[in-house]
Amino acid sequence: MADDRKRMFAKHMELKYTKEHGTNKMEGGKITDMTVEYHRLGVDQNPRKLEMKKAGQELAKKRGLVGYNPMMHCGGIPLGQRALTPSFLSGTDDMVEIDDLHYVNNAAMQQMWDDIRRTVIVGMDMAHETLEKRLGIEVTPETINHYLETLNHALPGGAVVQEHMVETHPALVDDCFVKIFTGDDELADEIDSQFLIDINKQFPAEQAEALKAAIGKTTWQAAHIPTVVSRTTDGGQTSRWMAMQVGMAFISAYSMCAGEAAVADLSYAAKHAGVIQMGEMLPARRARAPNEPGGIPFGHMADIIQTSRKTPEDPANVTLEVVGGACMLYDQIWLGSYMSGGVGFTQYATAAYCNNILDDNLYYNVDYINDKYDGAANTGTDNKVKADLEVVKDIATESTIYGLENYEKYPTTLEDHFGGSQRATSLSAAAGSAVSLATGNGNAGLSGWYLCMYLHKEAHGRLGFFGYDLQDQCGATNVLSYQSDEGLALELRGPNYPNYAMNVGHQGGYTAIASAAHAGRGDAYAVNPLVKVCFADDLLPFDFSKPRKEFARGALREFEPAGERSLIIPAK
Amino acid sequence: MAYELQYYPGATSVAENRRKHMSGKVEKIRDISDDDLTLILGHRAPGSDYPSTHPPLAEMGEPECSVREMVEPTPGAKAGDRVRYVQFVDSMYNAPSVPYFRSYAAAINFRGVDPGTLSGRQVVEARERDMEELAKFQMETEMTCPALASLRGATVHGHSLRLPEDGVMFDMLDRCRKEGDVIIMHKDQVGRPIDKKVNLGKPMSPEEAAKRTTIYRVDNVAFRDDAEVIEWVHRVFDQRTIYGFKPEN
């Protein structure tokens, strides 16, 4: 099967490595050639580098202080001694400059993270009960609609109750809104459609039923505070901002006396009693508030990405879109910036979502599983293979060897993933996700990830950077650990899990493995139905159903972000 | 019956080469003079004394300690040499050695070494004269092909790149070149120009490299064809997994 397969990366490799881009003179040759002529043309072969070089020169002239100068690299040897090739976003035909996949250069990436950080889910039921039982106020669909109208005025920074208040300019906070969702179809029917995330419309029927069953007759607010506020403050601000406006909106909408004793009860019930942060607070040594990326469990991240409701019949595609979103967030933004400082980690992450190399490996695995295990990689729950070590070994070994052989047969794939860490991420994400798809079990998938690492290391006599050799050689031991702090289900692990806190190139893959288990089963969500529904909202600036396409739009400078301040600063 | 060390499983030439590297019983195929080695390592001027970080141990008046008495210091430690490094990059295209096997070879066959293994490079730190002994051993033997491996203290990029037309692994700093039928190094391992060209010897032919390599490749010896090695990887995996699940097993 392996040898007659048309590789998904072939077209992209041919365009990247055998065609001329700008002035790089790379035309000619085949992607199976082991040798090539490196023209050593430096930055001048790449249009983005040239743009940046010019900008650096203008900056130096303008401020009288030197800035960006690509000739500073390594004492005068410029970046780009070999050809600087652009990349394709996997699953798209969009070819982009890799500099434009740094989150600083990519507005879509920024917006993805902004949209997560500025989101909080707040329960309504306890507040309603307090209003009814403590104050005897009748809560009806009409009052809820009125409250939501009030809150959509107040949440972006509009004043209610008090007079002579400063307010925010609506055009600066136009991305801020709140909607509600419920598993109660009768109540949903009564809610003004502008305020409702309609589960029945957003999800396929089976998924909608599962979500409504999980949510039951409870009601939740999906709130997104303004991007500009979130950026100016931190993830902890999201619930604080929401809490302030929720309190004021309740007081206003239900004509309460702000000083009466019951308001204290209402405040607690409305602001704090049913709050779901996207990420937990990290310990003091990592010093981050709630709703910062280091606290977002892999299961939450899997649910935030929305591809599963768009292409449920293609669980591999769901997995690959999760890879893209999660690698960007965890590798590029969390580990790459929050934890380390800024430059370089983009390069690790792009291997997982560029040029269809991982995609090819995973779709090969799907075919292998479906042939050998009677359609186990197709969506469904009755077709899964039992998650035992023999299955893990079989699927992960085949996946790994297939992927390794691609690097050996197609030297341009090896060159594209220039370092072992990139190869290890791609191979292990494929192996782990494949096991998950076949078994519907994320921990079995995780087990496949670790076996892949062992096989990779043994075949090529090398793996990733030091971190890989630490984490990935002891990882198998804690897949099913009896120790409580090392034995969590993969969905509940996160970037701060023991051993996972420091290594770029892993967390996006782990998220994909968690996601694949549920996508493979056709589940409506991975771990939290509330998070899944909260992001099923077309009003969000970032389209969470296709993050890779969005990153491409960002790189091509086609994406329109929120939170811009041009209204109040001199226009340029 | 004398116990014979069994370094590695496998029935293929790659497995056999891995066993050889780990055992240290490798073939010497070229000579590098001490001065040339010093020059390309770049830590000190050829002919100069080894800089030291402390007086010789014999003059130190060390405290009484049974472990100190039991372990003979390495020559570098005895003399008080500073700690220096040597770092190799090995091509993915049939380079004779690979990072893990350079590390295993160092750790098994040399004392007082601190090998570090990464995907593209392998660094060994040790007292300077001890490090040089190891560096010379690795450079003069079949563990190294001067075209498919190189000394790189900085900018290690290149191990996974396609080979340039002359078959000398890509190096953005151009430390090595093919001149005539030999490889010369005209910069030290961190890329500083040196006073003379150091002859590193002839590159291996593609056939010779394929024969001596320790890397599995589908176009030479495929990993999937070495069933015993895969079986042992599976065994390691099984045991580590089960250990975490139920340690009394």
From TrEMBL, chain A:
The keyword Transport does not apply. Its EC number is 2.8.4.1. Residues 331-463 form the Methyl-coenzyme M reductase alpha subunit C-terminal domain. SUPFAM superfamilies: Methyl-coenzyme M reductase alpha and beta chain C-terminal domain, Methyl-coenzyme M reductase subunits. Pathway: One-carbon metabolism; methyl-coenzyme M reduction; methane from methyl-coenzyme M: step 1/1. Pfam families: MCR_alpha, MCR_alpha_N. Its cofactor is coenzyme F430. The modification Pros-methylhistidine is found at H272. The modification 5-methylarginine is found at R286. Gene3D superfamilies: 3.30.70.470, Methyl-coenzyme M reductase, alpha/beta subunit, C-terminal, Methyl-coenzyme M Reductase, Chain A, domain 1. Keywords: Metal-binding, Methanogenesis, Methylation, Nickel, Transferase. It catalyses: coenzyme B + methyl-coenzyme M = methane + coenzyme M-coenzyme B heterodisulfide. One of its GO terms (biological process) is methanogenesis. Binds 2 coenzyme F430 non-covalently per MCR complex. Coenzyme F430 is a yellow nickel porphinoid. Methyl-coenzyme-M reductase is activated when the enzyme-bound coenzyme F430 is reduced to the Ni(I) oxidation state. It is an enzyme of class 2 (transferase). Residues 17-283 form the Methyl-coenzyme M reductase alpha subunit N-terminal domain. GO terms for molecular function: coenzyme-B sulfoethylthiotransferase activity; metal ion binding. Coenzyme F430 binds at Q162. Belongs to the methyl-coenzyme M reductase alpha subunit family. Component of the methyl-coenzyme M reductase (MCR) I that catalyzes the reductive cleavage of methyl-coenzyme M (CoM-S-CH3 or 2-(methylthio)ethanesulfonate) using coenzyme B (CoB or 7-mercaptoheptanoylthreonine phosphate) as reductant which results in the production of methane and the mixed heterodisulfide of CoB and CoM (CoM-S-S-CoB). This is the final step in methanogenesis. Hexamer of two alpha, two beta, and two gamma chains. MCR is a hexamer of two alpha, two beta, and two gamma chains, forming a dimer of heterotrimers. This is Methyl-coenzyme M reductase subunit alpha. The lineage of its organism: Archaea, Methanobacteriati, Methanobacteriota, Stenosarchaea group, Methanomicrobia.
From TrEMBL, chain B:
InterPro entries: Me_CoM_Rdtase_Fd-like_fold, Me_CoM_Rdtase_gsu, Me_CoM_Rdtase_gsu_sf. Its EC number is 2.8.4.1. It catalyses: coenzyme B + methyl-coenzyme M = methane + coenzyme M-coenzyme B heterodisulfide. Pathway: One-carbon metabolism; methyl-coenzyme M reduction; methane from methyl-coenzyme M: step 1/1. GO terms for biological process: methanogenesis. Coiled coil: none annotated. It is an enzyme of class 2 (transferase). It comes from the Archaea. GO terms for molecular function: coenzyme-B sulfoethylthiotransferase activity. Keywords: Methanogenesis, Transferase. Its cofactor is coenzyme F430. Belongs to the methyl-coenzyme M reductase gamma subunit family. Hexamer of two alpha, two beta, and two gamma chains. This is Methyl-coenzyme M reductase subunit gamma. It comes from Methanolobus mangrovi. The gene is mcrG.
